[in-house]
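Notebook entry, structure prediction.
Reason for the run: the old model in the group folder had no record of what sequence produced it. Starting over properly, with the input documented here first.
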Amino acid sequence: MRLFAAFAIASFLLLSIVSVDAQDKSKPDNQQNKPNNTQTAPENPSTRIEINVGNPTNTAPAQAQKQETTRETKPITTGELLIAAITAVYAFFSILTFFAIRRQAVSAEAELAAQSPWIMVNIEHTPGMHGRFLGTTKEGNNPEVKHTDFIFRFECANHGRTPALITEKRANLIIVPKNTLPKNPDLNATRVFDSRAEPLAAGKESQRKKDEYFSAPGYQSLDEWMVLYGVVRYRDVFGRERQTTFGYEVTIGDQIERLSGYPKYNENT
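New structure, fully documented this time:
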């Protein structure tokens, strides 16, 4: 920048000198050959050129500062305002579209759930086999093993709006100390007692009731629970695999009551 300023000043000086020399050459020869005793006219103040040669070091920063100030104070054009407005409108409508799609997805999922089958499992004593059977078993030289036996009747009902195909029924009978029942049922400990495919129409109960024998090791004491729990797996008309868990307590008086306070034992998914 300093070199440019020096070059500009030098050019200006050179042009000034050339201009003055041209003016001198344009005078008539008779004026140049006048005797020396002739009084020379004073110089015309208008042709006098004064050049104030500044310091290039001071000129360059001033020009740079002026350019920088010009860039900083550049006004916003109409085109930039239009682009910003279009971008804001696009973002606004994008947000509206996102929430609309989300509402539609939630609504579709809710509608699908409302149209799905809902299997409930009811358990009762097999007619003529009401109550428990206490027994012992001895195999070879092994000590006797006490066990409590029941025969339960299983019945499924479809409370949904579409048919279902039951594919598997599993259950387990256990004796546990009170208030020690796990919050989540151990479905891996259950055994399959019915693997036959069973179609179940909407709003209908099983036409084929299932009686099954279950045995739990030991005898139930007053501070223990007798619990029968399990799962029924089925497929809905949309091809999705679903299941319903069930859990019942068999009281000391052999009443079968659905478990309360354990939602995972009576859940439809």
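Summary: Residues 1-8, 10-47, 53-57 have pLDDT under 50 and may be disordered.
The old model has been moved to the deprecated folder.
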